[in-house]
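Subject: for your reference before the review

Hello V.,

The reviewers asked for a structural picture of the protein, and I figured it would be easier to keep everything in one thread rather than splitting it across files. Below is the amino acid sequence we used in the manuscript, unchanged from the supplementary table.
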Amino acid sequence: MGYLDKSAITVDAVLTKKGRELLAKGRQGFKISQFAVADDEVDYTLYDTAHPLGTAYYGSIIEGMPLLEATSDETQALRFKLVTLPRGTKEVPIISLGYSSITLTYGVSAAVTIVPSTSQGFNGPGFGYTAVLYDSSAGILSGTGLTTSPTTPVFIGEGVTNNATVVRGIQFTLAPRDVSAQTETQLTIIGNQTGASVTIPITIKPQPVATQG
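And here is what came back from the structure prediction:
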């Protein structure tokens, strides 16, 4: 990690592996159609409404903070993304899944279909959702309805990143794997348009042992 000198306006771009792959294809293959910004390095508790020099200096400490250097690991950056919502929006969009938790038993439970919805009519056609199953050894997660490649749009920590499944879609299917012991994990659904997210616990139980009577 490094810091950038704020005495000059600097744009520091670091391409991910996928970005370098697209860049190698030439200008036709490397077209930036969407981007995300975040304020990970900002400590808003430093906003000082009691500054003796008045309102113009309330955020002076924040404005003078160093910026974090760009990183190519999308799972470890952009933890606090900024979202632009239409003028007049009165409430932050909320995602509903129809489940507060999911428990599946291998060999007994059928796959569960999850159809997210976002309040206030957000996440229209083309946007969809990104789903992150934190432990890929617990279940099989798939998404349908979108053809774009998945990314990890949230900071989920290095330990989770190494074993997570990330898919995009309009709806998702979760099926249990053949686990040897009861496995507890989490499923996070993120709206690709709004950045809203919801996380629910997932429990996968092993196949029951048959007993002879």
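For the response letter, the relevant points are probably these. The chain is about 5% helix and 25% strand. The chain has two domains: 1-82, 95-205.

Happy to draft the paragraph if you're swamped.

O.
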